[in-house]
Fold Peptidase inhibitor family I36.
Amino acid sequence: MQKSSILRRFLAAAGVVAGAMAAGAFAAEPAAAAVTYGCEYPRVCFYGNSDDASRKRNPTAGYKDAGYWQKLGPRSRGAYAVYNSRDDDTALLKFDLAGNDVVWCVRPNEYLFLNPTEYPGAVVELKISSRATCP
């Protein structure tokens, strides 16, 4: 066998290996997170003004930790709307209505208008629950 023939076979085999490695590298990249209404999965997002809430865009805050009550910060407290982008978890919202705690449940993939002008206490805490349905 001639040297040029061996060299061509070696280069062809090296090209196949390099191509397979490159394809594997691209296949191993994680998929981009889904985004709905500007809310990246798996978050519960709040919309701080009526314009963005009515157009379902530009959330001002998003939460993804589950299993405990979280006090909402200034970008989510008193929000006009909330969207639960999670597929299998509910979001419990705690409202302080004249000193009384009221809890509402937001189903998976549900968008809910909160209308803080009607509820003076507004939403103050969030708990993301592993339950797929509201109680």
